[in-house]
Write a structure and sequence with these properties.
This protein is mostly helical. It contains 27 helices and seven strands. The longest helix has 28 residues, at 123-150.
């Protein structure tokens, strides 16, 4: 086969040995800026909705972010890696704590917390800024990878925008549900769910770029390859470091990275491109580095809390899972690649072709690893937080193969076509923002309205040596869940409390009983709310995250009325024997309540005296003292 100096097709095949062409980074910066704007959209919407009444809080994109923000604030405040912002039970010599999801996946929050603490930035702004930075860097990393694969910076810019703006679309989620009338618009840009998974994304796509530098650029003479020895060592180190960062950032990202590296290695072994043995030696060295990173990770897992296993909803199954949207997209890319090879548009052993195949195979591997391991761990997270983006980049790389085969990148028509794709991706990004952000408008406004009361608690705690163990009962569900992002005190109960190791499952349930009791909720009210399907908060608090929705595991079983009645009976028994003075019952120090609930606090007043009433908008703060 003949090639010209740019590696273009001359004899019927196309090869993408164009990585040496200069990448014009300004186009990557353009893509990054658009993605940063998309990341900031919820905050901009908050500014618009609140106007001059904005109190300073950040707008979250997903309700789970409050746990991430609470942990981040604790790190910014100088608390240990194994901390529990909801109960204040931090790790110490006297009270050692087990590992949690957050203490094991510490790389992302520490990356944010260290500079935030040095610069005096609080958790709300740290969440906002880090989300924009992660989005920018992710777009830049994808641009770099696509630029090396295609040698076309404008195509790389468009591809980066397509992959990230289409992330929810590639998952079969987001605004498309509302547009087609098949569901509601949620979630907003799933890859931008703050530092989980956002901080791992630049590392994941950076890993892909470094691996391409290792094996995609190994074409050429033996002399040219030998001269790259030092560069290869640097790329190996960078790739292993990037993989290590994903390991200590997010489980679903690093396991996807491992699956992709496995697919890539198998593709090289099976199809054996020129120079395969040198490539495999580099991949073996990279694999050794990855295994070295996984050793301490495995050790930390052995120290995990029992609560962590309960939250993760691990299911034992060997059932295949082949119909998720990212898999279907990957299969489509494989079909196109197969047709391209059959029609001799692509070269069978071309490195870019093999690279595209490995990406397209990865979603099917991560969704079906249970065929070998026998265990499935909330596959929806692969669908929404990483598999969709891998499927998206597989499609874009495949289109890049076609672009090099049939398109002339210098033609005006080709440039207009790629520019139109980039603009369409940007347009769809704003569509996603508009429809999915508004789902959380009301709760974000409520959180901002409650922000001053959290600031007041911070002022009160300024000289308090026991501030982390002072306990607040907050009668706003979303606001109470959010309180550790603002104030240092613990909370009696919060929706995300049980994801930390400070409380075991039974204690978490009892704390929720106390929350209901102090609010005057009867057992009948509790049961009826769950039976009507309206009280999903109680479903989560009393039965776990796996019983209120079928999204999280394949063995979902709807709650029965019998189960609900039995739980209501247990709550009634608990109320009947409750004594706030009993050892082990958390002593309350503060009450935060919406004004409209003040007349309904008879049960709380039975045990506590309310003093020093302070009003902040529609919320009221009381100090509490236990009655004798």
């Amino acid at each position: 086969m003949q090639r010209n100096a740019n590696g273009r097709n001359i004899g019927g095949y196309v090869t993408l040995s164009v990585h040496f062409m200069k990448i014009r980074w300004r186009f990557g910066i353009i893509a990054g800026l658009f993605l940063a704007i998309f990341s900031l959209y919820p905050q901009l919407k908050m500014f618009y909705l609140r106007g001059s009444d904005w109190n300073g809080h950040y707008a979250y994109n997903d309700i789970d972010e409050v746990a991430y923000a609470g942990y981040l604030k604790a790190l910014i405040d100088g608390r240990p890696r194994k901390n529990d912002p909801y109960t204040g039970r931090d790790d110490s010599d006297e009270t050692p704590q087990p590992e949690s999801l957050f203490s094991i996946q510490f790389a992302g929050p520490f990356t944010i917390a260290i500079p935030a603490r040095m610069l005096g930035i609080g958790a709300p702004w740290a969440m906002t800024i880090s989300g924009a930075v992660a989005a920018f860097l992710t777009a830049l990393a994808i641009f770099w990878l696509l630029g090396m694969l295609t040698g076309d910076s404008i195509f790389a810019m468009a591809g980066s925008l397509v992959v990230l703006a289409g992330g929810a679309l590639f998952a079969g989620e987001g605004a498309i549900g509302e547009a087609l009338g098949t569901g509601y618009a949620y979630p907003y840009f799933p890859g931008f769910r703050r530092y989980i998974p956002a901080m791992a994304f630049p590392a994941f796509f950076g890993l892909a770029g470094f691996v391409w530098k290792l094996i995609g650029e190994s074409v050429g003479t033996s002399d040219s390859r030998s001269r790259r020895g030092g560069a290869n060592a640097a790329y190996l180190l960078a790739a292993a470091t990037a993989f290590g960062y994903t390991v200590f950032s997010y489980f679903y990202v690093w396991t996807t990275a491992a699956a992709w590296l496995g697919c890539l290695t198998l593709a090289w072994i099976a199809l054996r491109p020129d120079g395969v043995w040198a490539d495999l030696r580099r991949l073996a060295l990279l694999g050794t580095g990855c295994l070295a990173v996984l050793a301490p990770y495995a050790w930390l897992l052995t120290k995990r809390s029992q609560t962590m296993d309960h939250v993760q909803l691990l299911v034992k199954t060997r059932e295949p899972d082949l119909t998720r949207v990212p898999e279907l997209i990957g299969f489509l890319a494989l079909v196109v690649i197969g047709l391209g090879i059959t029609l001799k548009v692509f070269q069978f052993r071309d490195r870019a072709t093999l690279f595209a195949i490995s990406l397209a195979l990865t979603p099917a591997i991560v969704f079906n690893q249970q065929l070998i391991t026998g265990q499935s761990l909330q596959p929806i997270h692969y669908q929404v937080f990483i598999g969709n983006y891998v499927a998206g980049i597989a499609v874009v790389v495949t289109l890049g193969l076609l672009w090099r085969a049939f398109g002339s990148k210098e033609s005006v028509l080709a440039r207009l076509a790629v520019t139109a794709v980039a603009l369409a991706a940007v347009g769809w990004g704003f569509v996603e923002c508009h429809y999915t952000v508004r789902v959380l408008d009301d709760v974000n406004v409520s959180r901002d309205e409650a922000y001053p009361i959290g600031q007041r608690l911070t002022e009160i705690a300024a000289n308090d040596s026991y501030k982390h163990t002072r306990t607040v009962i907050h009668l706003g569900i979303a606001e109470g869940d959010d309180l550790p992002t603002i104030a240092p005190q613990a909370v009696l109960w919060a929706r995300h409390q049980h994801v930390f190791p400070g409380v075991e499952w039974q204690e978490s349930k009892e704390r929720y009983y106390q929350q209901l009791l102090y609010q005057g909720v009867s057992s009948n009210q509790l049961a009826e709310g769950m039976k009507r399907g309206e009280d999903f908060v109680s479903m989560i608090a009393l039965f776990g995250w796996g019983r209120h929705t079928d999204r999280l595991n394949s063995e979902y079983k709807p709650l029965t009325f019998g189960e609900i009645d039995e739980e209501a009976r247990k709550y009634a028994d608990y109320v009947g024997s409750f004594d706030a003075r009993r050892p082990g019952i958390p002593k309350l120090d503060f009450l935060i309540t919406p004004i409209e609930l003040e007349p309904y606090l008879e049960n709380l007043d039975k045990w506590y005296e309310r003093t020093e009433r302070e009003q902040f908008g529609k919320y009221v703060l009381y100090r509490l003292s236990l009655k004798n």
